[in-house]
Amino acid sequence: xxxxxxxxxxxxxxxxxxxxxxxxxxxxxxxxxxxxxxxxxxxxxxxxxxxxxxxxxxxxxxxxxxxxxxxxxxxxxxxxxxxxxxxxxxxxxxxxxxxxxxxxxxxxxxxxxxxxxxxxxxxxxxxxxxxxxxxxxxxxxxxxxxxxxxxxxx
Amino acid sequence: xxxxxxxxxxxxxxxxxxxxxxxxxxxxxxxxxxxxxxxxxxxxxxxxxxxxxxxxxxxxxxxxxxxxxxxxxxxxxxxxxxxxxxxxxxxxxxxxxxxxxxxxxxxxxxxxxxxxxxxxxxxxxxxxxxxxxxxxxxxxxxxxxxxxxxxxxxxxxxxxxxxxxxxxxxxxxxxxxxxxxxxxxxxxxxxxxxxxxxxxxxxxxxxxxxxxxxxxxxxxxx
Lengths: 154, 222
What we know:
The structure holds two protein chains of two kinds. By secondary structure, chain A is mainly α. Chain A has a domain at 81-154. Chain A has helices spanning 3-41, 49-55, 61-73, 82-116, 121-124, 126-153. The longest helix of chain A has 39 residues, at 3-41. Chain A is elongated, with a radius of gyration of 19 Å. In chain B, helix 5 (83-106) runs parallel beside helix 7 (139-148), helix 7 (139-148) runs antiparallel to helix 8 (152-171) and helix 8 runs antiparallel to helix 9. Chain B is globular and about 60 Å long. At the A-B interface, helix 1 and helix 4 of A face helix 1 of B.
């Protein structure tokens, strides 16, 4: 195997793990933001603590999506399939990263709203659910396309 | 080592401010607010303290000389680096200069020397009812009318309203940031000022009622 082949295959393997890595980074940032908001809100409320802290865990789902995509892509692949896998892994990873970060901000906003008006919790959390929807789109199409890339290369 | 502020935690720990400042009590007491502000990092604390010192200066001795006014403004502009705090100080100074102009004209005096972006405008349009600023600053007309009617409370309300609306508009652009905290403090200060004003009026009314009752009691015994 020459250097060029090595780099191409390394990029392919990076593409396999990128969804998990970037999804996890996004979840860390998102959960941290929402978690910090939840712990701040605890100072200002007398009840409903569980709901506030529970909301802060929403951005963790991106890591799960990343793991599933990585597991789907984690198989022997040819040199031809490596660039495609890298591109898919990177792009879906970025989608998961940003969706988790911004979902964390949505959750933090929902937490600050809910502490004053608990009755609007369902509506306040809706923006976070919408962001989640886009992460799901990226996740599903990554699964579909990654299977196609491996097959086409073969 | 310089500590940093956890903006998400601090912003979420502060209770929501009311839609209007015309409420009977502040949503969080000064002591509680000071406790929450202990979450600020070192650099942010310095800026907040600068702004709080300005607010204290702004609240005390409203009848200062133009020289004192100019000197304090120059000192603030030299020491304050944060763009939002500079903007907030400038806004308060503009409000002061315009109010000063309206008062001086009513007393038949010359235009104020003052500070801020409107000094030259006030001088050039001294005879214009609202200094030609009614379109840009719609609150001037209401303030002028309240001043002319010598309604002290209405004057104070218009001044606070002008500043409140400015802070509300600015705060729409910030979420979970240092600017959010600064604007929260600025709006809290207005609510606090209004409730104290109300408290003073309540005290005056109570004293007046007490005097009336005591006078009535004295005349009854006589």
